[in-house]
Amino acid sequence: MSDVLILPGLFGSGEGHWQRHWLQDQPGSRCVIQDDWDNPNLGSWLPRLESAVEEAGETYLVAHSLGCLLAARLAGRSVARRVKGALLVAPCDLRATEILHPGQISFGDMPTAPLPFPSIVVGSMNDAYMPVDRLTLFGRLWNAETRNIGLAGHINVASGFGRWRNGYRLLEALKTRSGVRKRIVSMPPAFAM
Predict the structure, then answer these.
(1) Rounded-to-integer distance, Cα 67 and Cα 87, Å
(2) Gap between the Cα atoms of 154 and 158, Å rounded
(3) Helix or strand or coil: residue 5?
(4) Which of 81, 124, 136, 141 is buried deepest, with most CB atoms within 10 A?
């Protein structure tokens, strides 16, 4: 059973990336390993995630970049019932990503369905992979709380993010929120009025 599944994006999360630190620092976390980090293909990445969620039981997703779009693809899938919440950090806009990495990504269109689990989208004002207006749009479409953390680039090693303590705090806030939501949803009908 995994409390947290880590979902890296294009190229995986290399040495020093905050997701790598989380794997070391957070007991009960594990990375969803993909066969080809350099040429992401939704047709192979999504089944791998679904299998990991089924195996983990109830779990939280902590995704970065293209991993956020992978997490968003769970909307409408049966395994989504096992996801307690998702922290979606620096989601990429497929249009921008395909311009920056032509011919490398086969991920279809941007997912736009509301997420069936509590989510926090974290982005920045100067992310080359996601313009801030699109960040706000997708946060709204996904029915997620959106947090803009200012001039933070792609929230990766290149923009100065190694061990990211505020990320841990965001995950704890998400866990608290999803726990409250679960208790409210499971209240007896007499108390739900």
Answers:
(1) 10
(2) 8
(3) strand
(4) 124
What is the chain's alpha carbon radius of gyration, rounded to the nearest angstrom? 16
Q: Enumerate domains of the chain plus CATH numbers.
A: 4-191 (3.40.50.1820)
Say what percent of the chain tops pLDDT 90: 82
Give the predicted TM-score (pTM) of the model. 0.90
d(CA 127, CA 68): 14
Quick: pLDDT tens for 28-76: 999 999 999 999 999 999 999 999 999 998 999 999 999 999 999 999 8
Q: Cα separation of 55 and 59, whole Å?
A: 10
**φ/ψ of residue 167, rounded to 5:** -65, -40
For the beta sheet containing 83-89, the strands, ordered from the edge strand earlier in sequence to the opposite edge, are 29-31, 4-7, 59-64, 83-89, 119-123, 145-148
